Amino acid sequence: MAGSANLNIMLKAARKAGRALSKDFREVENLQVSMKGAGDFVSRADTAAEKIIKDELMGARPTYGWLAEEGGEDEGQDPTRRWIVDPLDGTTNFLHGLPHWAVSIALEHKGKIVAGVIYDPNKDEMFLAERGEGAYLNAARLRVSGRAKMIESIFATGVPFGGRADLPETLQDLARLMPACAGVRRWGSAALDMAYVAAGRYEGFWERGLNPWDMAAGIVILQEAGALVEPLEPEDDILSDGAVICANEVIFDKFARVIRG
Q: In sequence order, which residues have a C-beta less than 8 Å from that of residue 226 and are 6 or more positions away?
């Protein structure tokens, strides 16, 4: 797809950050993985990638607002537009030398996500979308899976770690869902989970406790690929409440009934 000027700025920033992270990833694989040594290294890689993205995006659009994992929030001179950025989604994978992590960049306009890119440098897969223009994986058009039976479907989620308060809810979700489907995957990157639903690799995804930068790009990519995307609790707001459920349109209601109990 040709893409708007803003989308092309996002693509350039994602690829540039991806190259830097790939170089750092080769180094982290060679580190002795102590939590302090490797963790500090990954934190520096994360921060450096965010700086690359911010320099690219804000250099091109200096009046836009900014919301990112490391750099916090800045309203900007134009309060109707802001970049929402996760420079490294899948940090724990990165830390352990697992090649499943991504750069995620979204553009919000008047409270709606209007463009998003999710870049997986390890596979050179760029998932992208602009509102009203469709979703793509590199140059190929994306479309959600057409599977209609739960028992034939694969779903993805994030299982809470470190004693998080939402662990019991997720375990209850899994107890209801796993007997009814073909499998559940937990790969450690919410951005890529959402992109994979858009690409038809999973039938659906749900998770609690997410941040706006984990989801923003995925939302528009999913919608443009034909998925239904809703807050986990229908009365909530996805970005502010951090809980999302999405699936292809055929299976969404069945899936949502299981997850929502």
A: 143, 144, 248, 249
- Predicted confidence band of residue 216 (pLDDT cuts 50, 70, 90): very high
Which structure tokens are listed for 247?
């699936």
pLDDT, mean over the chain: 92
CATH class for the region spanning 150-260: alpha beta
Q: For the chain, how far is it from start to end, CA to CA, in angstroms?
A: 40
Whole-number Å distance between alpha carbons of 246 and 259: 11
CA distance 17 to 11: 10
- Determine the angle formed by the axes of helices 167-177 and 252-260, rounding to 10 degrees: 130
**Type and span of the H or E element at 185:** strand 183-185
Query: Which CATH code fits 5-141?
Result: 3.30.540.10
Say if CB 66 and CB 24 are below 8 A apart: no
Does the reported pTM lie above 0.85?
yes
